[in-house]
C-alpha cells in the first residue's frame, strides 16, 4: 500500500480521536452555549413526555405481593436537628403543615387533622435517579385537595416543599408544577406499608409524585408554598439537588 | 449503480492500476452513520457513568440494595465514562440529550432508507441467504478474508447484512424501548413498556445487555473495516464512492 495514509496511521488516528473525543466531552460542558444546548434536553424530554401522556395518566400500581421486602431509605435518614428531635420526642403532636404563598387562606394543619382527611392508598414504584427501584405502599390525602382548601390562586404555577432536613446547613426543598400537583396520585403520605412513616422515610409527612424520580419525593415536609416563579427560591433551580449538582428539575426520566 | 470506469472487460486485467469505483453509500446512510457513531459513543460513555451510581442489575419490577442482583458490575474507570469524573447529573444530561438524537436519528434514517430503497435493495435478507449452507460458505469466506462477492461487489455479504439488520432493527430499538421503560413518566404514558420488558429493573438489565451487544458489533465492525481496507471503507462512508478491490484474493 503506497498511499499517503497508511492503515496503521488511520487506525492510530482513529483511536487517538476517540480518546480526544471522550475527554473533549468534558471540555464541551464547560462552554456556556454548549452547556445550554445539552441542558435543553430536559425541556425537550418534558415537552415530549407531556405531549405523549394524558395529564392524569396514572403511574403503574402494584399488588401487595409485588412489594419490595425491604424498602431502603435514601438521602437524609434522620434530620437530627434540635427542633426535629423535639417533634419526634412528642410524636409530632406539635407538628403543623404550613400551606401558604399564593393562596387565598393560608393553612396550618396539625398531623392528626391530616390523618383524618380522606386519603388515597397506592402501591407504587419508587425509582431512584441512581437506578434502583423499590415498591411500597403509600397512604395520605391528595395534595390537590389541600391546595384547593387553601384557595390556590390562578396565577400560581409551582408548588414548593420546604423540609425539616438540612444538608450542609441548607434546608432540603423541592418543587413541582401544577400538572403534577393536581395529579390524582400526588399525595402527602403520612403512612407507608400500613404504618405511620418512620423517620428514615420522612416522618411525619412526605410527598409522593409518582411520575418522577426519587429526589422529587420530598421527605419531612414542613411547608408548602404556591409560587409564580422558582427564581427567588434557593438558588433558583427549583430544588436542593437541582441547585447544587445540576439534577434535572423535571425528573420524569 | 454509477461507475467512474468502463465496465470490467478482458482488458482490465492488463491494466491493474485502473480501479473500478462504485457509488455505494447514499447521503442518508453516510450522514446517519457518522451521527450515530458519535451518538452511540456518547451514549456508552455517559451510560457507564450513570451505571457507576448503582452498578448492580436485577430482574423484575424492583431491585435495590437489599434485593438479589443477578450481576454486580465493577466500577467503570474514568477513561471509559462521560464525564471522566463521577458526576451522575452530567452523565444523565449527556445521555438524555443524545437519547433524543439516537431515537429521532434512527427514525429519520429509517424513513429515508425506505424512500431511497436502501433497506429494500441492500438489507433485505433472502431465504436462500440464511440457508445453513450459504451461511457456512460465508463464514469460510470471512475466515479467508474474502468479504465481497466478485459478481456483486457492492452488495453486503450475508453475515454483514444480518449484523446490520440486527443492529438497526433489533438492538437500537431495544435500547430505546428499554430506556423509555426506565422512565417513571413514560411508564404512566405507555404502561405496555413494563409488560414487554418485564419490569423496570428487567428493562435496566436488558438495556445493559443491549449495550454489550452493540459494543460487540462495534468491535467486529471496526475489526472488519481494518481487515478489509480501512482507507477505502472510511473514504466510501465519507464520499459514497468505493473502490472495488482487485479480485480474486
Structural descriptors:
heterodimer; A: 253 residues; Sulfite Oxidase, Chain A, domain 2; 29% helix; 24% strand; elongated; B: mainly alpha; 9 helices; 59% helix; 5% strand; disordered N terminus
Short description:
The complex is a heterodimer of chains A (253) and B (249). With 253 residues, chain A is α+β, with helices and mostly antiparallel strands.
Written account of the structure:
- The complex is a heterodimer of chains A (about 250) and B (about 250).
- With about 250 residues, chain A is α+β, with helices and mostly antiparallel strands.
- Chain A has a single domain, classed as Oxidoreductase, molybdopterin-binding domain (Sulfite Oxidase, Chain A, domain 2, Alpha-Beta Complex), CATH 3.90.420.10.
- Chain A is built from eight helices and eleven strands.
- In chain A, the strands form three sheets. In chain A, strands 2-1-11-5-6 form a five-stranded mixed sheet. Chain A has a four-stranded antiparallel sheet with strand order 3-4-8-9, with no helix packed on it.
- The longest helix of chain A is centred in the first third of the chain and has 22 residues, at about 5-30.
- Chain B is mainly α.
- In chain B, about 30% of the residues are buried.
- In chain B, helix 1 (about 25-50) packs antiparallel against helix 2, helix 5 runs antiparallel to helix 8 and helix 8 (about 200-230) packs across helix 9 (about 230-240).
- The chains are: A alpha+beta (about 250), B mainly alpha (about 250).
Amino acid at each position: 500500500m503506497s498511499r499517503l495514509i497508511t492503515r496503521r496511521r488511520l487506525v492510530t488516528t482513529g483511536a487517538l480521536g476517540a480518546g480526544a473525543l471522550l475527554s473533549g466531552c468534558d471540555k464541551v460542558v464547560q462552554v456556556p452555549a454548549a452547556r445550554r444546548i445539552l441542558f435543553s434536553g430536559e425541556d425537550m424530554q418534558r415537552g415530549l413526555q407531556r405531549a405523549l401522556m394524558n395529564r392524569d395518566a396514572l403511574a403503574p400500581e402494584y399488588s401487595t405481593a409485588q412489594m419490595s421486602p425491604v424498602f431502603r431509605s435514601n438521602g437524609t435518614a434522620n434530620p437530627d436537628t434540635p427542633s426535629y428531635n423535639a417533634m419526634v420526642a412528642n410524636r409530632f403532636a406539635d407538628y403543623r403543615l404550613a400551606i401558604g404563598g399564593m393562596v387565598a387562606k393560608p393553612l396550618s394543619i396539625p398531623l392528626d387533622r391530616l390523618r383524618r382527611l380522606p386519603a388515597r392508598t397506592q402501591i407504587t414504584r419508587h425509582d431512584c435517579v441512581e437506578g434502583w427501584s423499590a415498591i411500597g405502599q403509600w397512604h395520605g390525602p391528595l395534595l390537590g385537595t389541600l391546595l384547593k382548601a387553601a384557595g390556590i390562586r390562578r396565577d400560581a404555577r409551582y408548588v414548593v416543599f420546604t423540609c425539616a432536613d438540612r444538608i450542609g446547613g441548607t434546608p432540603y426543598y423541592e418543587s413541582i408544577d401544577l400538572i403534577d400537583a393536581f395529579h390524582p396520585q400526588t399525595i402527602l403520605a403520612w403512612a407507608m406499608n400500613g404504618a405511620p412513616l418512620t423517620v428514615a422515610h420522612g416522618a411525619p409527612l412526605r410527598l409522593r409524585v409518582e411520575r418522577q424520580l426519587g429526589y422529587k419525593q420530598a421527605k419531612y415536609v414542613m411547608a408548602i408554598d404556591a409560587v409564580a416563579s422558582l427564581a427567588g427560591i434557593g438558588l433558583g433551580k427549583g430544588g436542593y439537588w437541582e441547585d447544587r449538582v445540576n439534577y434535572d428539575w423535571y425528573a420524569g426520566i | 449503480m454509477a461507475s467512474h470506469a468502463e465496465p470490467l472487460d478482458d482488458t482490465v486485467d492488463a491494466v491493474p492500476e485502473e480501479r473500478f469505483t462504485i457509488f455505494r453509500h447514499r447521503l442518508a446512510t453516510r450522514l446517519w452513520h457518522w451521527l450515530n457513531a458519535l451518538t452511540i459513543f456518547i451514549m456508552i460513555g455517559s451510560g457507564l457513568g450513570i451505571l457507576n451510581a448503582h452498578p448492580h442489575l436485577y430482574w423484575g419490577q424492583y431491585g435495590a440494595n437489599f434485593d438479589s442482583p443477578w450481576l454486580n458490575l465493577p466500577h467503570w474507570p474514568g477513561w471509559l465514562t462521560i464525564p471522566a469524573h463521577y458526576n451522575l447529573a452530567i452523565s444523565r444530561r449527556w445521555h438524555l440529550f443524545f437519547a433524543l438524537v439516537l431515537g429521532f436519528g434512527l427514525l429519520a434514517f429509517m424513513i429515508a432508507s425506505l424512500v431511497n430503497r436502501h433497506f429494500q435493495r441492500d438489507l433485505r435478507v433472502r431465504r436462500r441467504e440464511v440457508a445453513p449452507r450459504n451461511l457456512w460458505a460465508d463464514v469460510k469466506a470471512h475466515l479467508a478474508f474474502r468479504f465481497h462477492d466478485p459478481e456483486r461487489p457492492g452488495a453486503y455479504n450475508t453475515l454483514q447484512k444480518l449484523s446490520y439488520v440486527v443492529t438497526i432493527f433489533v438492538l437500537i430499538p431495544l435500547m430505546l424501548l428499554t430506556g423509555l421503560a426506565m422512565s417513571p413518566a413514560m411508564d404512566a404514558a405507555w404502561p405496555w413498556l413494563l409488560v414487554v420488558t418485564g419490569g423496570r429493573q428487567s428493562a435496566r438489565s436488558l438495556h445493559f445487555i443491549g449495550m454489550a451487544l452493540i459494543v460487540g458489533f462495534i468491535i467486529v465492525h471496526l475489526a472488519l473495516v481494518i481487515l478489509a481496507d480501512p482507507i477505502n471503507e472510511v473514504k466510501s462512508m465519507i464520499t459514497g464512492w468505493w473502490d472495488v478491490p482487485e479480485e480474486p484474493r
